Amino acid sequence: TTFTWAARAFGPRTGWMGGWGIIVADIIVMANLAQIAGSYGFQLVGHASLASSTLWTTIAGVVWIILMTFICYIGIEISAALQRVLLCVEIAMLVLFSVTALVKVYGSNAPGSSIHISGSWFNPFDVPSASALTAGILSAVFIYWGWDTAVSVNEETADKTRTPGRAAVISTVLLLLIYALVSTSAQAFAGVGDKGIGLANPDNSGDVLSGLGSAVFGSTGLGWFLSKLLIFMVLTSAAASTQTTILPTARTSFSMALHKAIPSHFGRVHPRFATPTWSTIAMGLVSIAFYVLLTRISSNVLSDSISSVGLGIAFYYGLTGFACFWYFRKVLRRSARDLWFKGILPLLGGIMLLYFFCYAAFDVYADPNYGHTSMTLPLVGKVGGVSVIGLAALALGAVLMLIQWALQGSWFRSPDVPVSAATEQEVASVG
């Protein structure tokens, strides 16, 4: 994970902050997943009034986190089996939704708001401003986030030297194809107007699929069943995302505990299920506390906290890219493959994410008019809430690191982060 690789490349403090980047991003996004699960759960059973109730969606979201934490606690095999089933349901429904929508757009049953697909939709140079492009790219980072789950559980994977890497690449490509298909078909079918089913309608912009389901499939007979199945698919995707959020966070804190970077309790393993006990339970409890706290404060704060997740992801993904380049810098001249895959591409990724992190945090997200909240800070003035939440979450990690350093500083004095024998031999052979 970022924790170990950043520690190997840049030292224990950078590694600790890399691990914190993973943890804090996952905790924040759990609030969003719980909110989705609570809302769509009530929509599925026809209780629209409960789906719009903050109290009841919060209760349902908390129950959801508890259930998903329990599944992750009792074993990764059960989690993996459930993921396979959920993935099949989701892909089948999304493809059916997309094909049906496109057939109607280019057939005789297109809604009045529909538009035909344009090449400009895929051209970044058609984005009207740098701030819009930056916000879009960080949204894309958030959308494609999660492939590293496969890598974080590599020690529990069959053929761990090849399977996790392949899974990470395949899952990213699959997500790219599915997302491109669904977003293109949804935009073509609904259009971008601010009335009716248009995607710019504020009543639909935060929840596109539940509004488009009945419009695409119909509201009676088989169409009603398929629109309900689409809602169920969103619910199952929340289950999948919750699991793939708990798993890497628990493994990251487990790794940090084994290296004495955080209290040793987080390194305990269940004797029967062979899963991190304290790390998994703590992830669930902290996620519940964070979710309940934000919903008690304001739904606007909850919304802006979700928007800030892109900063945490860009931070630790970018750090991983720099760590890869720096750690393998001595072997880059050995072959073109090493130069590109261990040098140029990770470095470019790190530079790009660093740029977008800084531009978003100190310009786009810092705009008081961006998002739903703003705060007045001493010596700074009025700042957008998204920027404040994202940067404060990362800064909290620095405070916790200093506390851990003072209480148990062995990791910071003499970090021991072993690598595989093959990797160690590879680096040592050139210098």
From TrEMBL:
Ranges where the Amino acid permease/ SLC12A domain occurs: 4-356
Residue ranges crossing the lipid bilayer per the database entry: 20-42, 54-76, 85-107, 127-147, 168-192, 212-235, 273-294, 306-328, 340-362, 382-403
Domain of life: Bacteria
Xref: Pfam families: AA_permease (PF00324)
InterPro entries per record: AA-permease/SLC12A_dom, APC_superfamily
Localisation: Membrane
UniProt keyword annotations, A-Z: Membrane, Transmembrane, Transmembrane helix
Protein's membrane topology: Multi-pass membrane protein
One GO cellular component term noted in the UniProt record for this chain: membrane
Gene3D superfamilies listed in its UniProt record: Amino acid/polyamine transporter I
Record-level GO BP terms: transmembrane transport
Name of protein: Amino acid transporter
High-level lineage: Bacteria, Bacillati, Actinomycetota, Actinomycetes, Kitasatosporales
